[in-house]
Amino acid sequence: MKKFIISILFVVAIYFIWNYIDSYKEVSEVIDGDTFKTVDGKTVRLTGINSPEVNEPCYKEARDKLKEIIKGKKIRLEKDIKEKDEYGRLLRYVYVDDLFVNSEMIRLGLARFEEIEPNTKYSELFLEMENKARKIRRCIWE
Description:
Layout: H1 2-22, E1 24-30, E2 35-38, E3 43-46, E4 49-50, H2 59-70, E5 74-78, E6 90-96, E7 99-100, H3 101-107, E8 112-113, H4 123-135
Parallel strand pairs: 3-6
Antiparallel strand pairs: 1-2, 1-5, 2-3, 4-8, 5-6, 6-7
Helix pairs in contact: 3-4
């Protein structure tokens, strides 16, 4: 029984270590204001936001700001419920040190809040950030 418990604890420890290691990535390329690639080839979509597309106001500003914040840096990825979107991109909340990147992009008026069930963990925060950006007429809200 003791060996069984130790085996179970070992498997649980490996699972948590693997998830911890896998949650830290380095960014190799920024595609636009809400999508990027990691050095291991994964494409990541920032969960809960939608940045302007090419030829929309603030597209360049959003892409450039995301690049400034994350390119070449170690980031921490946080999952919600749904793992991937319909294009196979990882859906993640992203952090650089203590900066919550998804929220920051909304706060700066470089992305809109976009709630897509079931990934709603930070919906209230994102809505609050969008309302503030809209009120002070930041970038996409000009």
